[in-house]
Amino acid sequence: MAFLIFIGFIIVQRLSELAVARRNEQWMKAKGAIEFGSGHYPFIVFVHTAFILSTIFEVYYYNRGLSTFWPVLLAVFLLTQGIRVWAISSLGPYWNTKIIVLPNADIVKKGPYRFIKHPNYLVVAVEIITIPLLFNAYFTAFIFTGLNLLILGIRIPAEEQALNELTYYEAQFEDNSRFIPKLLKKYDK
């Protein structure tokens, strides 16, 4: 029962995010935004859909139960959800599941974007490991972690290139790494 509630939450969350992304896409394109990377987007949708289906299959087919480490894994998952909401709300109408860039738009550098360039991708990477491990779905965790790394290897360079072409992205984020916050910064006086 816990698994059904949990996976149901994930599915509703993802569908809600797609609705928000669609609304944001329409708003941005009405203002002249340009879409990039549309060729790899169907692969991303396929992998994320297959991830959920694989988790469900592995849990039921192999009769997997809740992990012994579920309190830690659930805490990590809940932390990622907080960062997810923070990242999406920080970008506001600029957040999307696609690469859509509004030329010369101000770069959002608030919320988690003050610390790293891609907090949402970090959240997804942690989720792809945590969600299946919460229910001992080891095969899914392993396979989809690899697929997600492949996706990010395509997606992030495409997104950064698009942002660099149409905004002052690199100049705004030159002090930020992609995923690891810089805890110690040198300040010139």
From TrEMBL:
Membrane-spanning parts: 40-62, 69-88, 121-151
Alphabetically ordered keywords of this record: Membrane, Methyltransferase, Transferase, Transmembrane, Transmembrane helix
Presence of keyword Lipid biosynthesis: no
Membrane topology according to the record: Multi-pass membrane protein
Location within or outside the cell: Membrane
Organism domain of life: Bacteria
Entries under Pfam families matching the protein: ICMT
GO function terms (MF aspect): protein C-terminal S-isoprenylcysteine carboxyl O-methyltransferase activity
Biological process according to GO: methylation
GO CC, alphabetical: membrane
Keyword Transmembrane helix: yes
Official protein name in the record: Methyltransferase
Organism of derivation: Mesobacillus foraminis
